[in-house]
Amino acid sequence: MKIQPKIASPIRYRSGRKLNTLKTFRPIKLKNRMRTLVIGDIHGGLRALHQIMERANVTTKDTLVFLGDYVDGWSQSPQVIDYLIELKTTHNCICIRGNHDELLLEWLNKTKENPLWYKHGGESTVLAYSTVSVETIKKHIEFLQSLENYYLDEQNRLFIHAGFTNVNGVDFEYFPKMFYWDRTLWEMALALDKNLKIDDLSYPKRLTLYNEIYIGHTPVSRIDKTIPVFMANVWNVDTSAAFMGPLTIMDVDTKEFWQSEPLPNLYPNEKGRN
Prior knowledge:
Layout: E1 12-14, E2 23-24, E3 36-39, H1 46-55, E4 63-66, H2 77-87, E5 92-95, H3 99-108, H4 115-128, H5 134-145, E6 150-152, E7 157-160, H6 178-181, H7 184-191, E8 212-215, E9 229-231, E10 234-236, E11 248-251, E12 257-259, H8 263-266
Parallel strand pairs: 3-4, 4-5, 7-8, 8-10
Antiparallel strand pairs: 1-2, 1-12, 3-11, 6-7, 9-10, 11-12
Helix pairs in contact: 3-5
């Protein structure tokens, strides 16, 4: 499998926290530059993943943090997992667990039938796995079982699929499933009064624990966006690749990001989760 296929198309990016600058980007060669790149929800869109890897000019010096939801939506969920398994042998990858990944694991283990899952992207995944060998399925189960609930780096930046509910942080979470099911963290960051100071007694404690929090799970298309959105100290990198948006990879230090084509353009004969 080729890790970085060539894509003959213009590379575009936006930079800065306001993300309001749009221009053609030509890769700059930076010697000994080790980046941390965060990748949003993929949802079976392998073609989009190929594009962002090429457009961000990913190298083996980079640390890649995948925020989960590798499956359910477009038709290449098994191939996305194959790609990530191989990528981990050549690159420094941190793969976070998403709720859709957990749902797939339950189905592959034959432990749970979930008709609701089929309606939210699972049907395309079930169809895709109909041609996957038993040996490959075993490897995929091992991969899904190995996923991390979250990653906290040396700069006190938290990478997590959905959020957490305990006001003392992830180490004190009573309900670990909230790491990949919660929506209250993002809703709180969205609703927060922007005039409220961080030292105010009413400032939410959950938003003071980490320098930055990177999440997916809740598509920013719900607020009519298709680029990463920054609220309080939370970056939402789910740019709606499961639906009508692009897939995004973002440099967490510079806040530059690169995007694929909108997924319906890459899979014109499919509906994704639309």
